[in-house]
Design a protein that fits this description.
The complex is a heterodimer of chains A (145) and B (665). Chain A is of the alpha+beta class and 145 residues long. Chain A has 2 domains: 33 residues; 104 residues, Beta Barrel (OB fold (Dihydrolipoamide Acetyltransferase, E2P)). A 5-stranded mixed beta barrel of chain A has the order 2-4-5-7-6. The longest helix of chain A has 30 residues. Chain B has 665 residues and is an alpha+beta fold. The chains are: A alpha+beta (145), B alpha+beta (665). The interface between A and B is large, with 47 and 64 residues. Strand 1 of chain A pairs antiparallel with strand 1 of chain B.
Chain lengths: 145, 665
């Protein structure tokens, strides 16, 4: 075993691991990332292809929340210019409120209603999801920093 | 008055840190002993000042002094005393102060206990530690002063986020920070070694206990956080691959790699440049974690209120600290004397494999965490990277590591015998295979993945303790205890830690394969079946707590027609906060947790109820506890405490370093 050969083995095994990781990452990225759209983009028809899961974010429009039983809910998510109707079945996160920021994950149904399979919960009532801030900023409606 | 005292102490600490960052460094370079001697007392004073500031802030919290902005923002006079105290770090400014307290505490610990360090190395280590201190003290003083007053003083505070009013969470940040900041010691030692231009086994012997302690703390911190998320958030999850969780997991992965590579430096005087690089990267990842949490650049369920100015400051600090140390590394690393050779199949080779896989896994987590930022910067496309990504990349990289974990410790240094090691593992392999098959045959629904996972867990647990068995019990029961006591503690620690990983794998496999979840709208008197238990809703009532009102549902839980327990999940609304929290009712059994959450009412007497059965979930925490126990046992090893051969070494005798490494074989 020479020093040169030892270094070769290091480099080759390091590159093999990196190569494997790169392959895994490329594969996972093509499949497992979730796009984000604002309500205005969704209304304009800009949704990810192949009916993939994506996220939509904005404010829960005041007065739009309609409950059907204890676990099904309809509401409008808005960036103040456009609104998208969302339906969700399941337990809601504690911070879900009218007028508050919300991020929903799911896909568009055939009737133009966004069917959420997950409403994202946040720990802190003063916290606004970054995507929602960006969506509101795009409409010039963001009042924070 | 107390607040001003705290503020003043922070300013003094900054000045002292600035002196400590420069004077001893220059002294060590010039051989001026009186300049070098500044380091130890300065480290002590810096710690003392940080402690004064920290306890001043704690005093303000306990006294509910709402003229201090931090207290006003995150405390309330009605809050129980415990949460007033822990509220000190339940906010940005206070948690930063805790960070500084721990950072200076580690510096003071080196100054106090590192008496066998060569004075010049100690001076350089303390100087580097103080440079980090300058960065954080400037950060807190210029962007996040915890002692800022507001005038006129408000009569009442705005309350602490009720989710944070929980004993588990109250102690989670200090442990996490002890871990994060503990890696600053490895960083300071690495940079000091680069400045000296020399790394030897004695250096590794000093670094290892600090790294090991930091690793134990970080493991505790991460497990506590995950446990808290499990029982408090009411989603039944324990790990979400959230950016902030990743931020604590990346230093853990890199730190685990560092622990193992430092062993190679200590025993064989090789892999030196790589170990230095790992030490720098581990702490850099801790800093990056702070940046991610504090700046709000990534959407996370964790973030405190965030502020771009702070993010910018930390980003600048990050660039200077990481860029500076990496530049130093690039200049000085080639000068490090290369060490001994070894065959690919050897203990060193196994540890290199461990390092390659851990580092690669860490890189994929880093990429997944930062990918949304990168893509946003390049294309403006907003995406989020969730659990599926990490499962698809992280898990395949971990599997070979876990499979090799039982083999590595059986290989001797320099040149190993793979066949011999595998023969020693023959019984372990057979047992693991049978365990897997038994699971496949007996547990419904069948799952091939779970079969593999359980077999892997058995392989790890049994393989982990195999070296211990060979050295104690195999020679007969009589005398086994004496042989165990005679073993080096680090060997016992390693076996425990590796077995702990196996227990975590067991918990993960069973939980992810066989957990059940059920959602149902229930009225009083109705029933729901979860994993063989029948839950009957007995009633829903309003209950008043000290600073909240709870809606409490009570369930009778029957198994086989007999009521075996009562569960009472709650939904709490707090008087001093608009927030609502979910208090899941969790009943631990030998096989797992029955976990029930109460949701909203439908206005017709029905309530949304979610029930889970979480099989083997407790093995996650038990496994983590065993890992930490292993770390602590190893930390108690005589070699870590004494570092005996090191004390006799002097600066000039490079030859002795070789002798020391020869002696450990």
């Amino acid at each position: 075993m020479t020093r040169k050969r030892q270094r070769m083995i290091f480099v080759v095994s390091g590159l093999a691991a990196l190569g494997a990781a790169t392959a895994l990452v490329m594969f996972a990225l093509s499949d497992n990332i979730t796009f984000f759209r604002t309500p205005t983009e969704v209304v304009g028809g800009d949704v990810p292809p192949n009916n993939r899961n994506f996220r939509i974010g904005g404010l829960v429009e005041s007065g739009s929340v309609v409950r059907h039983g204890a676990d099904t809910i309809h509401f409008l998510v808005t960036d103040t210019r456009s609104s998208v109707k969302v339906t969700y079945t399941g337990l809601l996160p504690n911070l879900f409120k009218e007028g508050q920021g919300v991020v929903a994950e799911g896909r568009m149904g055939p009737d133009g209603v966004f069917v959420a399979n997950q409403i994202l919960a946040k720990h802190d009532e003063t916290y606004m999801p970054k995507e929602v801030i960006d969506a509101l900023k795009a409409e010039g409606q963001w009042k924070g920093q | 008055m107390v607040a001003e005292l705290g503020h003043f102490a922070l300013i003094v600490a900054l000045v002292v840190a600035a002196v400590q960052a420069t004077v001893p460094l220059i002294g060590a370079a010039r051989g001026a002993d009186d300049w070098v001697a500044v380091a130890r007392p300065a480290a002590g004073i810096q710690f003392l000042m940080a402690a004064v500031a920290f306890f001043a802030l704690m005093y303000c919290f306990v006294q509910s002094d709402f003229s201090v902005a931090t207290v006003f923002q995150s405390s309330h006079s009605l809050k129980p005393l415990l949460y007033k105290v822990t509220g000190v770090w339940g906010n940005h400014e206070g948690s930063l102060l805790l960070w500084i307290l721990i950072l200076t505490g580690f510096g003071a610990a080196v100054a106090t206990f590192g008496t066998n360090l060569p004075p010049a190395l100690a001076a350089r280590v303390l100087s580097v530690q103080a440079m980090v201190g300058v960065g954080f003290l400037a950060f807190i003083l210029f962007t996040s002063n915890p002692f800022e007053r507001i005038f006129p003083a408000p009569a009442e505070g705005r309350g602490l986020n009720p989710l944070l009013q929980d004993p588990g969470l109250a102690i989670h940040p200090p442990f996490l920070y002890l871990g994060y900041v503990g890696f600053s010691m490895a960083f300071s030692f690495a940079v000091a070694a680069l400045i000296e231009g020399r790394v030897d086994p004695a250096w590794a012997r000093w670094v290892r206990p600090w790294t090991l302690a930091a690793w134990c703390f970080l493991t505790i911190g991460i497990s506590l956080g995950s446990w808290w998320a499990y029982y408090e958030l009411g989603w039944g999850g324990f790990w979400f691959w959230d950016p902030v969780e990743n931020a604590s997991f990346m230093p853990w992965l890199a730190g685990t790699a560092l622990l193992h590579s430092a062993i190679v430096v200590e025993r064989r005087d090789t892999l030196k440049a790589w170990t230095i690089l790992l030490a720098i990267l581990t702490f850099s990842l801790s800093l990056l974690g702070t940046f991610i949490v504090r700046s709000g650049v990534l959407t996370s369920v964790h973030a405190f209120a965030t502020d771009p100015a702070r993010g910018l400051f930390i980003l600048g600090f990050l660039v200077v600290a990481i860029g500076g140390s990496l530049a130093l590394f690039a200049v000085r690393a080639p000068a490090l004397r290369p060490g001994g050779l070894f065959a690919p199949v050897s203990r060193e080779g196994a540890l290199v494999l461990n390092n390659i896989l851990l580092a690669t896994a860490c890189a994929t987590v880093l990429l997944g965490t930062l990918y949304p930022l990168i893509l946003d910067a390049i294309s403006g496309e907003k995406v989020s990277v969730g659990p599926p990504f990490f499962q698809a990349t992280f898990v395949p990289l971990m599997l070979p590591l876990l499979a090799a974990m039982a083999v590595g410790p059986l290989l001797p240094w320099k040149r190993g015998d793979l066949r011999g090691a595998l023969e020693r593992l023959r019984f372990t392999f057979i047992f693991a295979g049978f365990t897997g098959l038994a699971v496949y045959a007996l547990v419904e629904p069948r799952s091939a993945a779970a079969t593999g996972g359980v077999a892997l867990a058995a392989w790890l647990v049994l393989g982990g303790i195999l070296p211990l068995y060979e050295r104690t019990l195999r020679g007969g029961v009589s005398g086994a205890a004496a042989r165990l006591a005679a073993l080096p503690r680090s060997a016992i620690g390693m076996s425990l830690a590796h077995a702990g990983v196996g227990l975590v794998v067991l918990g993960l496999t069973v939980l992810l394969t066989w957990q059940t979840e059920k959602d149902q709208v229930m009225r009083v008197g109705e029933t729901m079946d979860v994993a063989g238990y029948t839950l009957t809703l007995r009633g829903v009532a309003s209950v008043a707590g000290p600073n909240y009102v709870a809606q409490r549902a009570t369930f009778d839980v029957a198994k086989g027609g007999e009521v075996v327990m009562r569960l009472a999940p709650e939904k709490r609304s707090y008087v001093d906060s608009p927030q609502v929290t979910t208090e899941a009712a969790i009943e631990p059994t030998w096989l797992g947790d029955l976990y029930v959450v109460v949701g909203d009412a439908d206005g017709n007497g029905g309530y949304a109820i979610r029930g889970y059965f979480k099989p083997f979930v407790h093995w996650l925490w038990i496994g983590a506890a065993v890992m930490v126990a292993g770390g602590l046992v190893s930390l108690s090893d005589r070699r870590h405490r004494v570092g005996a051969p090191a004390a006799r070494r002097t600066r000039e005798t490079g030859a002795l370093a070789g002798a020391a490494s020869g002696a450990t074989e």
